[in-house]
Amino acid sequence: MRQRILVARAVFPALIDRLASRFEVESNQADRIFSADELVEKMRDKDALLTTASERISAREMSASPQLKAICNIAVGYNNIDVDAATHAGIMVTNTPDVLNETTADFAWALLMATARRVTESERWLRAGNWQKWRYDAFLGADVHGSTLGIIGMGRIGQAIARRSLGFNMRVIYHNRSRLSAQREHEANQARYVDRDALLRTADHVVLALPYSTESHHTIGAAELAQMKPSATLVNIARGGIVDDVALIAALRDNRLAAAGLDVFENEPALHPDFLRLSNVVLTPHIASASEPTRRAMADCAADNLIAALTGVTPPNLLNPEVKRKK
Description:
Layout: E1 4-7, H1 13-20, E2 24-27, H2 36-43, E3 48-51, H3 59-63, E4 70-73, H4 83-89, E5 92-94, H5 101-116, H6 119-127, E6 148-152, H7 156-164, E7 171-175, H8 182-187, E8 192-193, H9 196-202, E9 205-208, H10 222-227, E10 233-236, H11 245-253, E11 259-262, E12 281-283, H12 292-310, H13 322-326
Parallel strand pairs: 1-2, 1-3, 3-4, 4-5, 6-7, 6-9, 7-8, 9-10, 10-11, 11-12
Helix pairs in contact: 5-7
């Protein structure tokens, strides 16, 4: 009998065909969001899962799936999975790092530019038929060239963002759990390590590229926003929950922060409705990695992990290698 897998969200049909050549596949090409109870039921007889950030996999779901061997996330982040519970249950967990670094860095710059130069705000105004004449003070934004870029989270994506700043003649400062090597700082446009408070006080544009965890929850809250320049911008392409959305809304509404560009939100897709009432925020629906080549590469990477896990090979992106050691 062939091993059974669940593909929890719609994916490229070619990927389903690839998996179906090896396994018995239950796929969700209708792209329904399963309730917690539905997910438990669908997982019950599965050997592996192909998941996205939409599926919350906790100890409860795992305990209902005694033959589950692997959970393979189509994402670099994995805060939707209780990795400790998976390790305890002997279940391998994987993600898809690296394949989305450059595309996500590109999008961080798209948000940064749109935010600093008020692109979406001015487009909405134009589409509403308000443009009657040129004005010297219409939609004055912030310069990007020659300014100071502050990056919180200097992993591979953060470094890719920093490298792009060279063409804008920017100064780069960063904060990270640990300092980069001198070589990596040099490659990241001579990035300079500073503490978080100094970064917030100094940067003209702050970009968040750190992973979500209980420690990084509300890394940017009311106190941190109060340290930033009123002329500064904030871009989040990391994860919802890293920013306190209520505090950010208040800062934007009161013009204590010039603007924000957000691809992720707390409780997404049910973002806070007050964001929609603000003109000084650029909003996108979690699409930083959404180029076709990158999304295909992410799906293929997740499939590679799953195939390895079910054929006795160590998955290339195993997050809890202690599972293999225990076995």
